Amino acid sequence: METIDLVKPIEDIQQDFLPLKGTDHIEFWVGNAKQSAYYYQAAFGFELVAYAGPETGLKDRVSYVLQQNKVRFVLTSGLQPDHEVSQHHVLHGDGVKVIALWVDDATQSFKQTVERGAKPAVEPTTISDDFGSVTFSAIHTYGETIHKFIERTNYTGVFMPGFQAKKGIEAKPIGLQYVDHAVGNVELGEMDIWVKFYEEVMGFKLLITFDDKDISTEYTALMSKVVSNGNGYIKFPINEPAAGKKKSQIEEYLDFYKTGGVQHIAIATHDIIETVGELRKRGIEFLYVPDTYYDDLLDRVGEIEEDIQPLKDLNILVDRDDEGYLLQIFTKPVQDRPTVFYEIIQRRGAKSFGKGNFKALFEAIEREQALRGTL
Ligand code: FE2
Q: N or C: which end of the chain has fewer CB within 10 A?
């Protein structure tokens, strides 16, 4: 009894030291931000809202800010070969550099996490313009990735001081709502190190563990643990490779990204049939699961509101847990290297991650790896 009484308040304190209001934005460091910005507008239906670069007083880099409902992406490129962003691109290709978290107090977020062992990346900094001020700070996480803490209390500008409003092509949104989860791949043996980091440094809790029995096919395997913050708004699954007969997708990622990094970003929609239908029309490619997946789908997941035919036509997967079901689909990598990809997810009660689809998805990824000669 005493133990329970003692442990409970400590858990509450751990949840409180880093209150997170959501994902503020995700920043990609890319080779050609101007062209990437067009891809996200034309294919994913984002609206170009802001820009920073030489024309706005930023001499060494450009950034484009894109928005669709609560999903905000920043695309950044360096302008000289020795620039940090250019060097990052040479080594890693296009990839996620920053997962920015929305907080009430970026100074405290920095102090609390650094005190608990986080490696500082950016000291708390306040920048201002006519629309108010934004305070930010950052700490390192796996690979070259950082978490920025963004405090934008009372800021009424378009994104941040230093950025100017910018319009692009007419936005045709496809119903992307918010970032559901962001998954990291780490080196063999590092998963538990990073789970511990999120638990001890950021006050997250371990939500679910998947071992190689859950996530394996005849050839390849991986292990995954999901950590989540106190209010559940932020969920980070972390994968590491497991022993298999052939090279796992995680090893392939690490071979090409050259370090741990973000593997996929899951974006929520309220109408996955509409969202995926539009993405397919606009040329986005998805992983393919065989038609036989749908033969006994209803036996596996029970009654669902959607008709099977459009799900089958679009190759959307379904899984059920104790609380409901979810629909999901995965794109192929969205840059030349087989690294970052997207998941589109619609939750109908389920809070899980589609464990029942892992095998079918793994086999689909293996078919892609075989085509690339990397299996
Ligand atoms: Fe996912």
A: N
